[in-house]
Queue: 4 jobs
Job 1
Amino acid sequence: MVEDAEMQFVVEEPEVGSRLDVFLVRHLPGLGRAGARELLKSRGVRVDGHCLPRGTQLRLGQSVEILGRVPARRFSPAPAPELALAVVHEEAQFVVVDKPAGMPCHPLRPDETGTLVAALLARYPEIAQLGYARREAGLVHRLDIGTSGLVVCARTAHAFEQLTRSLRAGRWDKRYQAVVSGHPPVGARYTWPLAADPKDPTRISVADSDHAGAWQAETEVLAVKPAGSCAWVEVRASRARRHQVRVHLAHAGHALVGDTLYGGLEDRLAHHALHASALRFPHPTHGAPVDLEAPLSSPLIDLLRRLRS
């Protein structure tokens, strides 16, 4: 199924630096990342009249024209009322939940079950038509499968627009707790640009600043408590795009315990030791700050006890 489309968008201030494929996903509901790749591969997108790679970072005022036919990626997950949902904050505009490690935020296939979106749909059916794609119903941002912690889901179209806009503008404060190898210095600030690993699509790598598909990222170490040869750390990352905290800490020589993808120590923990513990963002209606926290998960508390003993 496809849709005829001839559309034009202009890059606004909050979207400066966004990847072209991410920009398309944001502006074409239901497209999804695979659809964006397909559309770009078919040369159905022009930026200021030119076909550009999907990782191109956009500049203020650029014109993005959709000339081709937009593939429809519209499968909707089935609600799953049997799945537990830890609600941290709930109101008419949005809801914030504490996702457990091991649960995907959304399905990648129509037959995939056990996702956060499926649990949310069972309790908040109004989110079904919101988000970047139907399979991501209402999600304002995501966490890796192995990362636990706070996730924000919009319940209205207005809230989704305002929350994603403030996130892109860097107005969110995201804090994470992790267990890492070694003892990174308090106050360390890692600003290495990141990009998809050309040799392994499951990985993100530190890249040169002039790399075509690289994005800017910043991770700051706020606190450190030694636990034997490892340490509990708290970090701040306002955007925290895909794998950012994991890659920055690993590149600094402090890979997350359990994060074997980036060279972390193997452990009986079933996932990497990372928890999205605190969020501060502007309320989508009146703009006042919303401050929320989620306590460290039991598996990570047990890990710290083992390391300290």
Job 2
Amino acid sequence: MSELLRSAGEVLARRETIWSLVTSNLRAGHRDKALGHLWNLLDPLMFVGVYFVVFGLLFNQGRAAGRGTFIIYLSIGVLAFRFFEGTILQAANCIKANRGLIHEIRFPKAVFPIAVSLSRLYDLLWGLLVLIPLLLAVGVPLTLHILWAVPLIFLFLLFTSGLAFLAAYLGAFFADTSNVVSVVLRLLMYLSPTFYYARGEHALIPEKFRILYMANPLACFFEGLRDAMLWGRLPEPGMAAYAAAVSLAVFAVGFGVFVSGEGRFAKYV
């Protein structure tokens, strides 16, 4: 425990390094794009359009509760999953992508997956902010419950960062990590309520499997954000407590595993 606290202190002392990596990642992500940061909005919107045709029209989810409502529901899921997916995939390669710094400078390597998580968080926050006028446009009233999105996003960041540490750790030692992670993420996308209703009268998930289905932390985060932003209600306390416990545990385990192996990174990359 003392070793982990010492490592955490070293990471916190490198706040300027983390910020520099975050800004560098953001610039690199839009360097060759004519529309620059506008793609933070356009890219997920195009995915929303595709999934709306498939699930909103072909699977009749859009007609079930109103097309405008389903577009918002779908947008929240797509934005949240793209943050999760992008963070894990980029983290899996972040150690080898920075092999020059790892060989030449002595500093806590945890700054790399943390910077990846914060860079992707910027995209998520931008998308959710732009979503607010869309909520008003389709007639969804904003309530004070929308403030619950703040702690939920923080917990989601912790959960995702914990898995990012694990992905970065594995990616430093195994070249095939990104390929395996990509397949797992694709499976998770369909096992999470990214683009279909998981609760309520229009749910595609049978009631008898609902508890098992909601054991997926992603389902708790997605549905919690929708409760706060779309449905204007308090996220389910049990679901939120479960998400908080899992987030803290995953972050602690991920950080611990990463720190235990960072001394060997230079040998493998």
Job 3
Amino acid sequence: MRIGLNIVRQHTMAEADDLYAELKPDVALLAQALFELSEKFLRDQGNFLPHAAVLTDGGEVKLVAAAPTNDATTSTEVLPLLHDGLRVQAKEGALRAIGVSENVTVTLQGQQPTKAIKVLFEHRRGLTVALYLPFSKKLLRGYVVGQPFTLAAKPEVNAWDKSAA
């Protein structure tokens, strides 16, 4: 998967590009794990709830999920629980990055809305990007995935923001 970026967030363009270039291996590790799992959920179930992965200081990728205590589980209920759990893990553990995968609809300027797997990547060094893997359902069975793209993003989890805890 080729991941490109043009980002400005609390950094000059050159600093942001340098940070992205330096952290690209971390981005790729989490994005690959989450895109693969999300694609599997799509193929097997036709949809998926938000789920996540963390990257430890030792370079290990660990998958993370959350669920409310009731039986009627929706993305709206799961996402805040997942974010809370990730903030706790970042506070208690030696994590360097987190990624959250969601099934979203995205509209790029001048284009039609499209379904996509979104992976929001947040690194403790301040880099936040959203990676998208567009997909569409085949007429008879299965899915077709498009070319991934990356956009600048604002943190949603704020795992390393002391005011978010």
Job 4
Amino acid sequence: MIKGLKICGVSDLETLNYILNHKFPPKFIGFITNYKESRRYVEYEKLKKLVNTKNNVSSFVSVLVDPDDKILEKIKGLNFDFYQLYDVNPERTKIIKEKYNVKVITALTINSQKDVDIYKDYQKISDLILFDGKGYEKSIGFNHEFLNSVPNSVNKMIAGNIKIEDISNFTNKDYFIDLSGALENEKGKKDIEKINKLLNLSILK
């Protein structure tokens, strides 16, 4: 059975409050912190208001792509439980984790088995390894069979063009599942009805 859900790309207070007050909230909620190419990117002042929302049910995740020291210093006082790091090497990942006393999700973008095997460089540093598609904000999928080589001892999350209807395919897996685009309407905004459908899935209970 899957370990739980992450809803990523939340960018408005109405959606955030709905998720936090749902009877089956997800394990993680992600906020795009420094990747301005994404339509889900949240400006700092708005981000500060979002993550200051009262929350004792879900872990808040700052999604960061190759973050420099400036953005790390800027967000260090915000209410994040995890930093999700893309394009950060193991040495810098360790430095960030120790300096800011934060849990780390290492995000690896996958196109081949070789890409998956990079997790070995991070497994002693990161609290969770996210295997994502190569598309970043474009929600591109990858062959999940590549993950069969990753032992159960590794704390895993998967993302990349996963739809609500796909969840049943993972019920015998020890993964966290990360969804974003599948929970949006045609205008690219989070859809409350889709979020509700996801969180109420009987197979997750």
